[in-house]
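Running co-folding for adenosine-5'-diphosphate.
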Amino acid sequence: MRVLSGIQPSGRLHIGNFFGAMRPQLGLQAEHDCFYFIADYHALTSNPDPADVAQHVLDVATDYIALGLDVQKTVFWRQSDVPEVTELTWLLSCITPMGLLQRCTSYKDKVALGLSPNHGLFAYPVLQAADILIYNSDLVPVGADQKQHIEVTRDIAIRFNNNYGEILTLPRPYIIESVAVVPGLDGQKMSKSYGNTIEIFEPEDSIEKKIMKIVTDSTPLEEPKDPESCNVFALLKLVASADELAEWENKYRNGGTGYGEAKERLAELMIDYFKPFRQKRAELEGNIDYVKEVLAQGAERARAVAAETLAGARKAVGLGA
Ligand code: ADP
Ligand code: TRP
């Protein structure tokens, strides 16, 4: 089964990204033929500082490799190293009804958040469709917010195949719902846009300081507390063993334990959880040429597949001799 997903290179990744997206993606590697890429063409839709674009790609690539991307097995590359995908985007654009894109909620959400309403941002579901279709992907693991784009991809593929013959493989979404939304320091969803994140690889003392600042209610130390509505407990669930979690649940319900104690233990567990990855990341940072080499080799493997699909699609629409 060909599994494909794209990751936006928008800076350092946080623990919400890890538990909500990366860990499940990395978990699919053993059993499937995974194609994961860093979506730098997509990043341009928000007009980032050019100096940041390449740096963010390398940051995200280093994070993924440190966190367990299997560089031998998984194909891992930078989207823009396979420019064939932009040509397929054009072929698909020409059969994509405006209405299909006008119904996409992510464009409206992003404009509401203050992003410039440029054509790239509006049309990016077509680029995403090309990303998926050019690699003959069967399964696309994404968060629930991206489900609509996989449906758009299927619609576009069906239209293309109806017009030109069975060229494109229809993908299925694989919605990652195994983990609840990871809360940020203020209790809202952890997100770069809210400035409430804990980055996976920020310095350990900074992780600890942030955890000590997580918002909790003002139940006094001696009184019982509700674990299910507590942000600290939600994060403990991600890193504590089942036995330890059960102990914390009892401590919450019985009263007599303060949030401060829970936070201190959470900081310890969170730091321990990422320690081996942190060490690996430090090694990679000292050898960034290796990271670049992984991406270059990935691009070569990806490009071979992309070139073949594109050649079939060009021929089908009547381009070339
Ligand atoms: P951000 O909200 O920080 O901009 P993205 O939207 O780039 O993060 O998310 C990248 C991936 O990480 C998506 O698949 C998304 O579902 C997942 N993700 C992001 N934040 C969280 C969170 N707080 N809890 C669970 N998953 C998350
Ligand atoms: N649009 C996705 C996001 O914002 C990233 C992405 C780009 C993607 N191309 C993709 C995801 C193809 C899955 C498949 O997170």
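Result summary
Residues 2-182+288-317 form a domain with the Rossmann fold fold (CATH 3.40.50.620).
The chain has 13 helices and five strands.
Job closed.
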